[in-house]
Structure formats: structure tokens, C-alpha cells
TrEMBL record:
The keyword RNA-binding does not apply. It is an enzyme of class 3 (hydrolase). This is Mannan endo-1,6-alpha-mannosidase. One of its GO terms (biological process) is carbohydrate catabolic process. The lineage of its organism: Eukaryota, Fungi, Dikarya, Basidiomycota, Agaricomycotina. Residues 1-16 form the signal peptide.
Length: 419
């Protein structure tokens, strides 16, 4: 069905955005039937779950946030395949880890051997709990996600905080506005330089870490918060969550999108300095796409779907993280795990959410379908060794690694739908 649509779209999809599928992409269709796609994805999951440490709820060879993402795929696999194969693993382990770490807020040991906590870590697990709730309807998982939302809400910059220049959980003065704004030191004897752009309020930004002196507000933490808020709005109908999602969606929109429609990384709330323009990672764009997709559905406000489509179109076509053949090259790390290996899975999951939330936009669906098949075919043809996959999607195949497997799982599961 999609193959036919794809041919039509190549000639007819230049309305506001050109959502046409690049002809340079490698193999943009796959003819495997649904049952086989389900089997391939579950087979890969089974290789991953063999690495579960039953005492911690984490997987050998993965970081804490990455382990949370494995449970997201397990839940989504059941949701898309209509199975209950992974239900017990999802429910038991998401409850175990919540019991080990209140608010899923792990005190992890950083590279600098300091005990650190991350708001995004807590929300990766809360996100898995929400997918678990969606797949299997376990109210305890919804309650866990709500608990994390309430906890992280303490690290959101409210409109009142921005106006006051203070945030109750931080021990430094925050900038009220950034983007084009850089407060000059009084000793320079100049009025604050408001720069060239209109100033934008810092309200809605979410601090990356709970530590009182950590000044970073970043897109992944804010994007996760948007997504959690939008899902909670959908499940509860409570406008508090809708308003939280809108406030934070506006923060990314006015502070952290580059001229090519890709989502940037970090803004320093103490002085408005930003991460380098070259810090462009799939997961920042992917998580924002997911959050906007759900927010558009919850609010019915087309500004969010329009923004989502622009960013998605940019994300699947940029050469920052893929070649002209369309295969993602970010996070190819055959010999060791690192955070970046896990990013592309988050991007693919965001595209899947956009796909399911856009039933009436066939050009967008064809684009996502084609992009998903490019990754799927690369994994199966270039990077597979049995049911295990290299994190280098262009290959070569290699022996099993936990991080290569993690990176592949979302492609295989998403393709149950998007193929
Ligand atoms: C793509 O579609 C063509 C035409 O139906 C088919 O011959 C080919 O096998 C498909 N590619 C894959 C990888 O399934
Ligand atoms: C809506 O959610 C907020 C935040 O969790 C909560 O404080 C409030 O009581 C909820 N309202 C209703 C009507 O449940
Ligand atoms: C800063 O604001 C301008 C004007 O609203 C906007 O076009 C630009 O995208 C913003 N910059 C970032 C990095 O979001
Ligand atoms: C898609 O279009 C149908 C028919 O016009 C409409 O009933 C439905 O609400 C639309 N769905 C979305 C998500 O916009
Ligand atoms: C495939 O995996 C097996 C088992 O992990 C390993 O022994 C073998 O070397 C791998 N094959 C390739 C081509 O790396």
C-alpha cells in the first residue's frame, strides 16, 4: 500500500513543507509481512532481556537511563503487536526500580566519581511507566509516572520564577529572558545588552539536574517533561498537565531550535550562554517531535503539529546524523557503550508517535514509513548477526553488544506499525 503512495507523493507533496522522500535513500520499502516483523522485533527483545540483572532491574552493559529505555520498547512491543509477552517483565521491573530509587531518581556515580542525579534519568523511567500503562493498563505505573512528574515539576522555571529571577530549588540568580539577551556585568557600566532578537522568557525550561548549583536547562529534560505532561493530560484530562506541556513546548520553541529546524542542546539559566551550535543529537529532536505529537492531539492546536512536521522533516533529511542514503550514522560504537549510542532509538520512537498521531497526513506517514524502512533494511542486511545487531547500522555485523541491541530495538518494534 505504501509503495504506491510513495510514488504518488514524490510528485505531489509540495504544499507548505516538501515532505517528499529523497530518492537518494537506500531501500525505502520492505515486504516482510506483519507476523514476521513482530517475530523479528520480539526475537531482538529476547536477546536483550537475557542481560537483565534481576536485583537492579537494569541490563548488563547499559547505563541507567538506557535500561529505562529498554522497558519502553518492551511495553511498546506489546502495545503494537497486541501481545502480553513482555507484560510481567515491564510491570515487575518498573515497580522494582521505583522501590529502589524514589521518583526513579538514581544517585549514580559520574565519570568524575561524584554521586549525581539527573532529572532526565528519572523521566526516562517514568516514560517507560507511561508506555507500560498504555500497553497493559496497570494503574500503579501511571501513579509512578505522576510521582516523577510532580518531583520534576520542582525544577521547572515558572513564569513567576522567571519574573523574579530566582528558582526555589536553585541557589543562584536566573536570567528572566534569554535568546538575544546576555546580561552585562554592572561593572562594565552598560545597560543590559538585549541583543538583536526579541527576548524570550525562560519560563518552561526544565533544569537538567536537581543539584542546587547546576545551571543547565536542556532540551532533553524539557522534551521529556513536555511528553510526560502531554501523556498525563491525555490520560487524566487534567488541564494542569496540558498547560505544563504548552509552557515547556514554548521554551524549546523560542530558545533551542536552530535555523535548520533541528533542536539544540543546552541553555545556561545563570547567564544565557548556550551549548555549541554543533551539539546536535537525534534524541533532542526526537523527544520534541514525540511531545509535540501528543500535545497537538491533546489540544487540537495545529501550531504544534505544524511545528512538529517542520522539525521532523528537517530531522530525517539533515546530513548531521545520516548520509544521503538516509541511514543514521550517529552513535555507531562497536567496542564500547556511551550515551550517544542510545540517542537514535529515542528519535525513531518519536517518529513512530508522530506517525500514529497523523492518520490524515499521508505525505508525512509515507516519509516516516520510508525513513523507518531505510533503517530497518540497513539493520537486517548490513548490521545483523542472527537476532543481534551492531550499533553501526551500516555494518559490519559483530558479536552481541547490549548497546547495539538497545539502539536497534526501537527500529524493529516501530516498524511493526510504520512499515
Ligand atoms: C521493495 O519492493 C519491491 C517491489 O515490490 C520488492 O521487490 C523488494 O523486495 C522490496 N524490498 C524489500 C527490502 O523488501
Ligand atoms: C490536576 O493535577 C494537579 C497536578 O498533579 C493536581 O494538583 C490537581 O489536584 C489535579 N486536579 C484534579 C481535578 O484532579
Ligand atoms: C531566538 O528567537 C528568534 C526570534 O524569535 C528565533 O527565530 C530563533 O529561532 C531563536 N533562537 C533559538 C536558538 O531558538
Ligand atoms: C482524520 O480525519 C477524519 C475524517 O475527516 C476525522 O474524523 C478525524 O478526527 C481525523 N483525525 C485526526 C487525528 O485529525
Ligand atoms: C556473531 O555472533 C556470534 C556469537 O556472539 C559470534 O561468535 C560471531 O563472531 C558473530 N559473527 C560476526 C560476523 O561477528
Amino acid at each position: 500500500m505504501f509503495f504506491t503512495f510513495a510514488l504518488i507523493s514524490l510528485v505531489s507533496s509540495a504544499v507548505a513543507q516538501d515532505l517528499g522522500v529523497p530518492l537518494s535513500w537506500r531501500e525505502l520499502n520492505n515486504s516482510r509481512p506483519l507476523a514476521e516483523r513482530i517475530t523479528i522485533a520480539q526475537g531482538a527483545i529476547n536477546e536483550m532481556t537475557a542481560q537483565l540483572d534481576a536485583s537492579t532491574g537494569e541490563f548488563n552493559g547499559l547505563g541507567y537511563w538506557q535500561s529505562g529505555n529498554v522497558f519502553s520498547v518492551l511495553a511498546n512491543q506489546d502495545h503494537l503487536a497486541g501481545t502480553t509477552t513482555n507484560q510481567a517483565l515491564v510491570q515487575n521491573n518498573l515497580k522494582l526500580v521505583f522501590g529502589l530509587w524514589p521518583h526513579y531518581d538514581q544517585f549514580g556515580v559520574s565519570h568524575y566519581l561524584r554521586c549525581v542525579r539527573y532529572n532526565d534519568d528519572a523521566m526516562w523511567w517514568a516514560q517507560a511507566a507511561l508506555y507500560g500503562y498504555r500497553a497493559h493498563g496497570d494503574a500503579q505505573l501511571l501513579a509512578n509516572a505522576l510521582d516523577v512528574w510532580t518531583h520534576v515539576t520542582g525544577y521547572v522555571i515558572t513564569p513567576a520564577d522567571a519574573a523574579a529571577g530566582n528558582q526555589p530549588n536553585k541557589d543562584f540568580a536566573i536570567e528572566s529572558t534569554c535568546n538575544g539577551t546576555r546580561r552585562q556585568l554592572p561593572s562594565l557600566g552598560r545597560a543590559p545588552d538585549r541583543g538583536l532578537n526579541p527576548v524570550a522568557t525562560m519560563a518552561g525550561g526544565v533544569f537538567w539536574r536537581p543539584t542546587t548549583d547546576d545551571t543547565s536547562v536542556n532540551s532533553i529534560t524539557t522534551g521529556l517533561y513536555i511528553t510526560l505532561s502531554a501523556f498525563l493530560a491525555e490520560y487524566t484530562g487534567n488541564a494542569t498537565y496540558t498547560n505544563a506541556a504548552i509552557l515547556s513546548a514554548n521554551w524549546i520553541k523560542s530558545h533551542n531550535i536552530n535555523a535548520d529546524d533541528l533542536v539544540l542542546d543546552t541553555v545556561d539559566a545563570a547567564d544565557c550562554t548556550t551549548s555549541p551550535a554543533t551539539w546536535l543529537f537525534t534524541y533532542n529532536t526526537g523527544k520534541y517531535i514525540e511531545g509535540l505529537s501528543v500535545l497537538a492531539a491533546v489540544t487540537g492546536d495545529s501550531q504544534w503539529s505544524t511545528l512538529m512536521i517542520n522539525i521532523l522533516n528537517a530531522g530525517v533529511k539533515t546530513t548531521v546524523w545520516q548520509g544521503t542514503n538516509g541511514v543514521i550514522t550517529e552513535g555507531a560504537s562497536p567496542t564500547s557503550d556511551n550515551d550517544g549510542v542510545g540517542f537514535k532509538a529515542v528519535f525513531i520512537r518519536g517518529l513512530h508517535e508522530a506517525f500514529t498521531r497523523s492518520p490524515n497526513n499521508s505525505a508525512l506517514q509515507i516519509l516516516i514509513h520510508s525513513y523507518g524502512d531505510v533503517q530497518y533494511n540497513a539493520l537486517l542486511e548490513l548490521a545483523a548477526n542472527g537476532s543481534t545487531y551492531s550499533s553501526s547500522w551500516l555494518g559490519p555485523p559483530q558479536a552481541f553488544t547490549s548497546w547495539g541491541q538497545l539502539a536497534a530495538l526501537d527500529v524493529l518494534t516501530s516498524n511493526i506499525d510504520t512499515n
